[in-house]
Write a structure and sequence with these properties.
The complex is a heterotrimer of chains A (about 240), B (about 400) and C (about 350). Chain A has five helices and seven strands; from the N terminus they run H-E-E-H-E-E-E-E-H-E-H-H. Chain A is an alpha/beta fold and about 240 residues long. A five-stranded mixed β-sheet of chain A has the order 1-2-5-4-3. In chain A, strands 6-7 form a two-stranded parallel ribbon. In chain A, strand 4 and strand 5 form a beta hairpin. The N terminus and C terminus of chain A are likely disordered. Chain B has about 400 residues and is α+β, with helices and mostly antiparallel strands. Chain B has 15 helices and eight strands. Chain C is mostly helical and about 350 residues long. Chain C has one domain. Chain C contains 13 helices and no strands. Chain C starts with a helix and ends with a helix. The chains are: A alpha/beta (about 240), B alpha+beta (about 400), C mainly alpha (about 350). Chains in contact: A-B, B-C.
């Protein structure tokens, strides 16, 4: 085994906080990335003194990872996906006896936009420059597959497994897309918005009986007092 | 990917073992199931290890025995309700789980907690780190058959739990952080009591340093075992003490700008160049001391004022996305919160530290002996709720 | 032994003519006392109380005064439990294994002298017999590990096999120094030599071999620690790795037998160590003007056991103290320690003893 250091030689980190990244640094990062992947960089969003989002095309997902790793983003934080479709079941907190609310089912993506219902996104950190970046990519609705990052960042392996199991997104060249949490024969992808939360389907949210008018809140005065019967289960079965 | 000498040797040995198996059918590898019910996994982690004698040829952790689906559940909760869920992620340092989520929500709402609340948040955050890591330090002995430290840890951890209970009303799951501040102010006399308890914890650290870290057997079991180089650690996204033990000078308390009061205190970020099990444990010991220091200093600097800023009665978070990560006891814990302007989050991605930390296990366990499985797992330090969420 | 007592001291119990059956019963009872009393005492004093105080807690307090009846309650609990055997276990030998382990303890106590005449047998080659019989427990442990049909048990059993064999050797070699110095393998003779001996002409404390054979004593105690599979050598049990090693599948009274055997063996090794190194049952004979073992007064047969128990508890106290304070080695470190450190050291000690014996 290599030489082991002595405790007394242990280097200590800085006491003072390091210089925080400015927006100039973030703009530079975007420029570098645009140089590397060119047109594949579809959209960027830089919130001043906060964070950086970029969206790249699906095909260049792996190339983006490589470019960012080469640019110093060597620390893999996480990888996951978002289903941008609003849940057809609402937030499952409504009184089942009420009129069912009209749910607006238009898909509206978040920062840096997008065209598809599903998006993968990942976060990488540059530890030396103390700056992070969130990368997004659309996942085609008819072919929900993107390239795997697991060869690039070993830690992405588990995150992609989780993402596959929860969203049904496939990853090219992933060594082992087994289920992580759920049984192997589980059907459906739980984190998709159209996957119902069954516990809420069979029994309405118990919190709704607690709703009571609050005298000092303007809206409460207008709204009729919600008096949900305790055993209001029939409505929930539909 | 670089491999250590031992791993290369073990790979050769495993190849040779397979060759023998095929040619002569003489030896046979054994598959050992460690867990889900096993004393070493302190929870329901399962590790499948293929052994050649006592040497691990191949190992694979199987998580998911405790998956509770928090990411789905957050979608049917309102923002204030989510804190009671995420309390249960890392159940030894519960308060620390709430902070990044609340900070993310505050970021989206573009409000900030008043200074007093920020300092108290930081104090409670560090207290939960002490509560978490002190149990780790005690448990470390148990993993190697020394049963005395864990009782000392439970004894002294009680002081911290009592303080957390005194301030928040909950020993394990405080659920105390609110969007825009804290639920309550500190009770009378709490500051004085905390000072005493922090002293006791510093003594506890000295005891453990002496009893465990000074022990030759402990050192020979930990030093040079489970070495993780810095680039591998970054690749796997190791965070917290695990990363710092590999020489990565990265601490989210220091290296990012969050409305927490770490800059009021004078403290250090410790790193260690070795990257072995010893380094990981030693870093945690030093961190506990630093936490005691931070708490001790911040107690004198709590400003006067309210603990809650003005927030609407019914909290609606404006549309947007926010990522906030903090340096939790186990490592980097972050929440990627997507809001659609409603009462509850649209999607919450919980990036928990143990998930990444434990994903290195197949790599780290290659070629080690069965007893080293235990020490490496212990030094990587995971909490099941933090892996499975 | 009582027969000998009766023959030796006719004045004390003049009419006692002990028939063979009564003597057999007395021997059995004596053996049970010599095995079970140390086991119970060690468990209560060290495992329950000393460990608790080291860990800043009280330990059992409810059953009896200061929890002194706790052990009886535990025994009652174990007796009530179902005697389980795994489906794939080799049931016959699986059930036999704990008995073999306990048997070796009983066989071991047979040669231990508790007084000038208070012994079960008085082999000429007593120490040879003791060391030979001590290894029978390895068989029981291996059987338990193999027949449980459990991988943890198997690993534990094999570890125990390797460990006990590795530490048998330094133990034998450490004993060799004592045998050379005493010039006998008879345990009573070893006691006599120590209590009649002199250090540089001063016979005030006799010549307990712990002084001249200090290295041997250390090696012997380390080897005993390993033979008993106590921490830091407890990897056959290794509760954090192997669940409970070779005892994983045992429940109820079979586990109880393993448990008793563990602590009873600790007691018996404590007895043997105090005979070999601490002067055994005797007091320095010069205190009372005795020349040899035949002069020793009859009451030493009653005081001797008390002395033996005191010394045994002191030695076992050290063993337990180490057990509660140290983490465990890894298997390869343990073997390295035995073969590369203890055995060369013991060999050197034996050679040095032999040379000095010839020189002086």
């Amino acid at each position: 085994m290599a030489q082991l250091s002595d405790d007394t030689q242990t280097p200590q980190g800085d006491t003072a906080p390091a210089a925080l990244p400015g927006d100039g640094l973030r703009e530079g990062i975007v420029d570098t990335l645009r140089n590397d992947i060119g047109e594949a960089l579809l959209d960027t969003l830089l919130k001043p003194n906060d964070d950086l989002w970029v969206r790249v095309s699906t095909e260049s997902w792996l190339a983006t990872g490589q470019a960012l790793k080469a640019a110093g983003f060597t620390y893999f934080c996480f990888l996951s996906a978002i289903d941008w479709m609003p849940s057809p079941f609402g937030n499952s907190q409504d009184d089942p006896d009420d009129e069912p609310k009209q749910i607006d089912m238009t898909i509206k993506q978040g920062y840096t936009g997008g065209e598809t219902r599903m998006q993968v996104f990942a976060r990488l950190t540059d530890i030396d420059r103390h700056v992070g970046i969130t990368v997004k990519a659309d996942v085609a609705d008819d072919n929900q597959v993107v390239d795997s990052w697991s060869q690039l960042f070993a830690g992405a392996n588990w995150h992609e497994r989780e993402c596959h199991e929860m969203f049904g997104i496939g990853f090219n060249n992933h060594p082992d897309l087994r289920n992580m949490y759920l049984p192997g024969d589980f059907e459906g992808y739980p984190l998709k918005k159209d996957f119902p939360l069954l516990a809420r389907m069979v029994k309405p949210w118990p919190g709704i009986v607690d709703v009571e008018p609050m005298p000092d809140f303007e809206e409460a005065a207008d709204a009729p007092a919600a008096e949900a019967p305790a055993g209001a289960i029939e409505g929930a079965e539909s | 990917m670089t491999l250590t000498d031992r791993q290369q040797l073990s790979y050769i040995a495993s190849q040779a073992a397979d060759a023998r198996l095929n040619v002569e059918l003489e030896t046979e590898g054994m598959t050992l199931n460690i867990g889900p019910q096993h004393p070493a996994t302190h929870g329901t982690l399962r590790i499948i290890a293929r052994l050649d004698g006592e040497q691990v040829v191949w190992a694979e952790p199987v998580a998911g025995y405790m998956h509770r689906g928090y990411e789905k559940l957050t979608e049917v909760r309102t923002f204030p309700q989510v804190t009671s869920l995420i309390n249960r992620i890392d159940w030894l340092g519960s308060f620390a789980n709430e902070v990044p989520f609340i900070l993310a929500a505050e970021k989206l709402m573009e409000i900030e907690a008043p200074p007093r609340a920020q300092v108290i948040r930081t104090i409670l955050f560090e207290l939960s780190r002490i509560a978490n890591v002190s149990l780790f330090l005690g448990d470390l002995g148990v993993q190697m058959g020394a049963i005395t430290p864990v009782f000392l840890a439970f004894r002294d951890r009680e002081y911290i739990l009592n303080l957390i209970e005194g301030a928040t009303g909950g020993r394990f799951h405080p659920n105390f952080d609110r969007i825009g501040g804290l639920k309550d102010d500190l009770p009378k006399g709490w500051i004085q009591e905390t000072k005493g308890a922090v002293k006791k914890l510093e003594e506890f650290c000295d005891t453990i340093d002496d009893l465990l870290f000074g022990n030759e057997i402990f050192q020979s079991r930990m030093r040079g075992i489970g070495v993780i180089p810095a680039d591998i650690a970054k690749d796997y996204g190791l965070s917290g003490a695990n990363a710092r033990a590999s020489g990565i000078d990265w601490d989210l308390r220091r290296d990012q700008d969050l409305p927490l009061s770490y800059d009021l205190a004078d403290w250090k970020v410790w790193t260690h160049p070795d990257g072995d099990s010893w380094a990981r444990c030693w870093i945690r010991l030093q961190e506990t001391r630093e936490s005691c220091k931070i708490v001790g200093q911040l107690l004198d600097q709590i400003p006067a004022g309210p603990v809650m800023t003005k927030v609407p009665r019914i909290i609606k978070v404006p549309e947007g996305e926010a990522w906030v990560a903090t340096e939790n006891p186990l490592g980097e814990m972050g929440y990627y919160v997507v809001s659609k302007g409603g009462l509850g989050p649209f999607r919450v991605k919980i990036r928990s530290a143990s998930f990444n930390n434990i994903s290195i296990v197949p790599w780290a366990l290659k070629g080690v002996y069965v007893p080293d499985i235990i020490t490496i797992l212990a030094s990587l330090y995971f909490i099941l709720g933090d892996i499975d969420r | 032994m009582l027969a000998q007592l009766a023959a030796e001291f006719p004045g004390w119990y003049p009419e006692w003519n002990i028939p063979y059956w009564l003597m057999s019963i007395l021997r059995v009872v004596g053996g049970l006392v010599a095995v079970l009393l140390p086991a119970g005492g060690i468990v209560y004093i060290f495992l329950f109380k000393m460990m608790s105080f080291m860990q800043s807690r009280l330990g059992p307090m409810e059953a009896g005064p200061y929890g002194s009846m706790q052990l009886l309650a535990e025994v009652g609990k174990w007796m009530q439990k179902e005697d389980l055997a795994p489906d794939n276990a080799d049931v016959r030998i699986y059930k036999m294994a704990p008995l073999i382990v306990l048997l070796s303890t009983f066989l071991l106590v047979v040669v231990v002298p508790f007084g000038p005449q208070a012994y079960f047998t008085n082999f000429e080659t007593g120490i040879f017999y003791a060391l030979a019989v001590a290894s029978i427990s390895v068989l029981g442990i291996l059987i338990a590990g193999w027949s449980s049909a459990n991988k943890y048990s198997l690993l534990g059993g094999l570890r125990a096999g390797g460990q006990l064999i590795a530490y048998e050797l330094p133990m034998v070699l450490a004993t060799l120094g004592v045998v050379i110095q005493a010039g006998s393998m008879n345990l009573n003779r070893i006691v006599e030599v120590q209590n009649t001996g002199e250090i540089f002409g001063i016979g005030l404390i006799g010549n307990p071999f712990v002084i001249t054979q200090f290295i041997g004593f250390l090696i012997f105690m380390i080897a005993v620690q390993a033979e008993l599979t106590q921490s830091p050598f407890d990897m056959p049990i290794a509760e954090s790795e192997l669940v409970s090693g070779y005892m994983t599948e045992y429940s109820g009274f079979r586990f109880l037998i393993f448990f008793i055997a563990e602590f009873a063996t600790a007691g018996v090794f404590g007895f043997i160590a105090s005979v070999l190194f601490l002067g055994g049952w005797g007091v320095p004979f010069t205190w009372f003007g005795w020349e040899g073992i035949s002069d020793v007064a009859w009451w030493m047969n009653f005081v001797g056991p008390l002395i033996m128990f005191t010394k045994m508890f002191a030695l076992v106290g050290v063993i337990m103290w180490v057990r509660f304070s140290y983490p465990r080695f890894r298997e390869d470190q343990l073997q390295t320690f035995a073969w590369k450190v203890l055995i060369p050291l013991a060999l050197a000690n034996t050679a040095a003893t032999a040379i000095l014996k010839v020189v002086f």
